[in-house]
Amino acid sequence: MKESARKSTVKKGNALPAILIFAVFASVPVMTWALLLKNSTNSPAVKGSETNSLPVGSYINVEISSPSEVWELNEYLCKTSDECATSLDSGDKWGNLSGGPDALHEVVVVQDDKWEEYNYLKIYVRPGLSSQGTAYEPALFGEISIQSVAFEDTRALIIPVSDIKSGKISTLTFSN
Length: 176
Known about the structure:
Layout: H1 2-40, E1 59-66, E2 71-78, H2 81-86, E3 92-99, E4 102-110, E5 120-127, E6 137-141, E7 147-151, E8 154-160, H3 161-165, E9 171-175
Parallel strand pairs: 1-9
Antiparallel strand pairs: 1-4, 2-3, 2-5, 5-8, 6-9, 7-8
């Protein structure tokens, strides 16, 4: 009889760890679902995006229409309009962004505290390095007093920073 009692004890001892392992593995998906549900109520739908709107006078929208080629958006800050008009790359570089073919790509240029030192923003779009496309022509929307300057085959816009800060927000569109 001792052997039969011993066999039943061994079987019961092996069942408990198996049940615990099963319970742990079964609870992982439930805990993951609960955490994702909790975090999704406080976060935007797309990771890395924000749903908060920007304050008036802190940005300018730039739309780029380039259905068949890559493009490059360049931004420079200048102290005077003459400094911006000297050459295509004059001024202090603020930003550079490239993109691929797209019927309409929107870029938001956000003002920063560093803009306090400058009076003008120069912005232009040209074909990307791997592209031999045509020039991008700007179209203006809004009530901002913008100066348009041609440099060889690229047209740059020089925008007073004070007009951006005052809330005269505009959408600039470049298309080829």
